[in-house]
Amino acid sequence: MKIQQRWPGESRFKGWFYLLPGLAIYLVFIFFPILSTIRNSFYKWNGFSGTREFIQLDNYARLLGDAQFIKALTNNFIFIIFYSIIPILIGLMLASLLGRKPIRGMTFFRTGLFLPQILSMVVVGVTWRWIFNPTFGLLNTGLRAVGLDSLTRPWLGDFQMALPSVGAIGTWVMYGFCMVLFLAGMQRIPEDQYEAAQLDGAGGFRQFLHVTLPNLRAELGVALVTTVIAALRVFDLVYVTTRGGPGDSTLVTGFLVYRSAFQQNQLGYASAVATVMTILIFVISLVILRFQSRQEA
Description:
Structural class: mainly alpha
Largest sheet: 2 strands, antiparallel
CATH architecture: Orthogonal Bundle
Number of helices: 13
Helix content: over 70%
Distance between the termini: 24 Å
CATH class: Mainly Alpha
Strand order of the largest sheet: 1-2
Shape: globular
């Protein structure tokens, strides 16, 4: 095996020198706060007093019997449907429509469909809160205009509809990312594979199943990991639209951490929730990546 030689006079620490600024930022703003959160999860602390009481695993034991945590975790898993599964399906459909044949205005369509992904989540939440407004919101106004008054409701204030309403916003935000990712993957699929499938008598749908999908395995893995993480760590959208309400209908673990730490002054318990969610996200991501690597082997 050929070993790459360094240029004359080049320091062996040059690579580390270039990595140092990014590594320092990561350590200060991500790694050390994670370690601090894990440490705080073993204490009973209100976040303000200088004294902390070491309570070992009591915060984690409390999680097992906390109905609010179970409800929040359940809502996070429901959000996976809206943040991950539905956007991936929509992204695949749009990519199959836009990726195979050249369409006039392709750049415009790609940009327009991807636009929700680059908007601030606060802007998205405020906009959709206005759309869902029960009095003058665009959705209820449109339903009344076409004679469907019976379908109008306070979408974000309804115990049954609040969660799917917020989830629909997440779908709107995430599907553009999936579509662009799949479009990029489709561009590297050799055209002769589609031609061979056509010669074998495969129609458009069978070509999608047997040519497009197998070649998008890597992109599907990236999309799945990214969207599942987004569903499990959602906070800003819930905070802007419903603040976990009505009741606990849209409560998620991210908002539970915020409420426990900054409204109820239970920083130790909030740290335990955050630690559990960090481990859960890491494990789920690892399982998805391991499954993807076995499929590609």
